[in-house]
Amino acid sequence: MGYKTISLSEEAYEVLRKAKRENESFSQVVIRLAHKRTLSDFIDSISDDSAIKLSKALEDFRKERSELWGQSMEELMS
Fold first, then answer.
1. CA-based torsion, 56, 62, 68, 74: positive or negative
2. For the chain, how long is the longest CA-to-CA vector?
3. Alpha-carbon distance 9 to 48, whole Å?
4. Coil, helix or strand for 45?
């Protein structure tokens, strides 16, 4: 594996240093932080109870948004 030398501002270095875990290299920190995560990456980290609460909150939000949209459209049409 090859290596590259990069320059960082003091601020950027401090951000990386604070994000660095014990026994983790700076290269590993950069890879971990730069990794693009998807919703599926978090599926196993949420409890069933939290998933149910989240699902209910989203359902309530969608219902409320739909009702508000309907009211707005009625006002525009009248």
1. negative
2. 69
3. 43
4. helix
- 1: tokens are 């594996």
pLDDT tens, residue by residue, 32-55: 888 877 777 777 778 888 888 989
> Of 35, 38, 41, which Cα lies nearest the Cα of 27?
35
Are 26 and 16 in contact by the 8 Å Cβ rule? The answer is: yes
The answer to whether 20 touches 29, Cβ cutoff 8 Å, is yes
The answer to whether the Cα torsion of 18, 20, 23, 26 is positive or negative is: negative
Cα separation, 57 vs 63, in Å, equals 10
pTM, two decimals, is 0.45
Amino acid of residue 1: M
